[in-house]
Design a protein that fits this description.
Two copies of one chain form a homodimer.
Chain A (H helix, E strand, L loop, with lengths): L6 H10 L7 E2 L5 H4 L43 E2 L18 E2 L14 E5 L5 E3 L1 H4 L4 E9 L16 H5 L2 E10 H8 L7 E6 L6 E5 H6 L2 E6 L2 E2 L9 E3 L12 E7 L14 E2 L5 E2 L8 E6 L11 E10 L7 E5 L7 E2 L1 E3 L8 E9 L4 E8 L9 H8 L12 E4 L5 E4 L3
Parallel strand pairs in A: 4-13
Antiparallel strand pairs in A: 2-3, 4-5, 6-7, 7-10, 8-9, 8-13, 10-11, 10-12, 14-15, 16-17, 17-21, 18-19, 18-22, 20-21, 22-23, 23-24
């Protein structure tokens, strides 16, 4: 049934099966409707201005999760976004992926300073208030850790999209353009590289070519409307759209202008791509086109049995927008073009859907993203042929989920 | 200085004044930079998966607020969005305006049911799971209570944009199209109106013409990626884009199809516009074009003194997008076209900015929104001439803030 695609079939899949499939005819005396439910019999809780609003207690299981064996300490650990429980393209701040190298720096905003030094006309120091006086801009960008899906290089490791793909979030940033702030100090003509340095104990720092710094990089102080969360670099972080998350320096403390890269720890011993022969690929900054099905997935099995079924997922590319996503339910024998819905924004997550009539037989689900350059998300095996399996970084291979006849979903690979 | 506008002046205002104005030249021995700050001397807090992420303790003052004298009980009260502390267009869920008529209904999602009855082929009952099997869509829409700015009809009442304009939020909804769900029951040809009814103790219900129901209305179960908050109708609410917030029925329990409106409480004794002669305007559903400056504003004074200054605010229209916003700093003698930045989406908030060089003299700030029909946001006096001052609803008049030479901002009116 899933094998016959094409325009007329797709129209049927997305619109024709609705009537009569979901829901049931109302029955006289159905107690769920004809009785007055308990919550309609008494006043509910009133408004309360004393605290920041939280999710319903019925959603208390929707949380970031870590994988204890991944890192030695919780100060150098990872909290993964629960992608299987989210929809749309905005990651709520309370569920946004976090990764630190020496824990969360705790900076009183009045004490925050950003210094610009090196090859500039006037070394400068900015307060947070100073930064907020530059023209502000608003952009929705994905941040993906370059180690996202890294454990999967050597075969299925973790049985949940939260863990295979949850080193990622997508929020609306408000901030100022890095080029405007640099212009205040005056970058000398020999300044070709920028070192961005964080104020945490690790002093995470990365070299960024000036072309990128002057293009779309931002210094952000708000995410999804409100102040940056502490774990996202409060009060100010660097935003490096489409490039690996490690470069988005949090608790941004210093920008140095130089004529060559610095070769610091995070761009030598880490965040380089170890190849099979022992060489390392370096400065592989751009996150290539990638996608994943978030539901159904191992943590979000199909509970409703056969019939009308929604497949949904995310697609993104560091090169820009996603013009097309394909979905297969038979392990790649037949591909169907998915419906991408919601704002289609540059270097942002895109949400896709594929609705179909499940016959209750086992499925092999995959998605593949296309970018505007013609690039198509590769299989994991295709990546392994070129890169080997000793790297932890830049794994944008196609993810496979198996679904059994009970709707149970597992992380598998097919060759 | 603010009186000379025009393209070349605006370019200078937004780009020319950056260098040297914000920030200060770095001084040798500046302790804020050359010392290693305390937060760089020790490990910070590690990742913690035990709770939903919260704002920095330094942002603990950023909260919704109520106005005790507005309503008799907190179960029928209002918690206002702190617009003066937000930027961009997304309202974080924890700060989103809430208004109830009998408190927050507490509905276990497994017990949720939606019934469709009346002039349909097959009366039906849907579980939440059933609803989630329909094709899903993602849209960012503003919700504005029709009483937003209602206290201002009779002159300045509340000294803060949170209270004058904070009955409003703007989030990305994920849900299903109302027309798809109605199609499952089959609306009879004589079905011209829909009654949407909530499951709270107040049983809030509103009549909606079928044209709107079949156009862009949604049944939403997610906001900003995660489940609806309890105070926003968990687990499912109606979304009625561009129309007054009271119609966006929360805890949606029942949809009845009829051939005429029901004339229920919330569309007769309430949510009608009382005119000076005692008549009421009824079914004034669409929220007209409106805007307000959120910063500077009474709760967000100018603290940095004269020089480079950012004015920012929000504009919106129930008729669609906002093609243009004007700002004045001299009480309307000269108007400048503001820079609208960020996604420009149908029936969504739009964020605007106007950067200028403040000479430190008193200001009278206003903004006015244009919509795509050619309509321009009117003055409050122009509205009063037609509607009188006894209504509480649909006040979309131009807001004025005065700024004194110390940067203190007040809610004022000028004639």
């Amino acid at each position: 049934m899933h094998n016959k695609s094409g325009p007329s079939r797709r129209k049927f899949l997305t619109t024709g099966l609705i009537a009569g499939v979901a829901g049931s005819a109302a029955r006289a005396g159905d107690p769920t409707i004809t009785n007055v439910q308990p919550w309609a019999q008494e006043l509910g809780k009133g408004v309360d201005e004393r605290g920041y609003g939280l999710p319903s207690p019925h959603e208390a299981h929707v949380l970031r999760k870590s994988v204890p064996w991944l890192t030695a300490e919780d100060t150098s650990s990872i909290n993964f976004t629960p992608l299987h429980q989210l929809d749309g393209i905005i990651t709520p701040n309370g569920l946004a992926f976090e990764r630190h190298h020496s824990g969360v720096a705790e900076i009183p905003p009045a004490d925050y300073r950003l210094m610009i030094n090196g090859l500039v006309d006037t070394p400068m120091v900015f307060t947070l208030q100073d930064l907020m006086r530059f023209p502000r801009y608003n952009k929705v960008y994905f941040l993906e850790c370059t180690a996202n899906s890294g454990m999967e290089w050597r075969g299925p490791q973790l049985n949940g999209v939260q863990f295979t793909h949850g080193m990622m979030h997508n929020v609306m940033y408000t901030g100022v353009m890095l080029r405007d702030v640099l212009a205040a100090a005056g970058v000398k003509s020999e300044g070709k590289w920028l070192l961005a340095e964080g104020a945490d104990a690790a002093g995470v720092s990365r070299s960024i070519p000036m072309e990128k710094a002057l293009d779309d990089c931002m210094i952000a102080f708000k995410m999804n409307g409100e102040a940056l969360r502490a774990e996202q670099g409060y009060p100010a972080r660097l935003v490096v759209p489409g490039w690996e998350g490690n470069m988005w320096i949090k608790w941004l403390r210093r920008l140095e202008i130089g004529d060559q890269p610095w070769h610091h720890r995070e761009e030598t011993s880490r965040y380089t791509d170890l190849m099979a022969n022992g060489d390392s690929r370096r400065f592989t900054w751009i996150m290539d086109a990638k996608s994943v099905i978030t539901e159904p997935s191992p943590q979000a099995p199909i509970l409703h049995g056969k019939g009308q079924t929604v497949i949904t997922g995310l697609a993104w590319s560091g090169h820009g927008v996603i013009p097309r996503v394909d979905v297969t339910v038979d392990g790649g024998i037949n591909w169907h073009q998915a419906r991408v819905d919601g704002p289609c924004l540059d270097k942002s997550l895109h949400r896709f859907y594929f609705e179909f009539d499940w016959d209750g037989k086992p499925l092999l689900l995959q998605s593949r993203a296309h970018d505007t350059t013609g690039y198509v998300q590769p299989t994991k095996d295709a990546l392994r042929k070129i890169r080997g399996v000793v790297s932890n970084y830049h794994n944008n291979g196609i993810q496979t989920w198996s679904v059994d006849s009970d709707g149970v979903v597992d992380n598998v690979e097919i060759s």
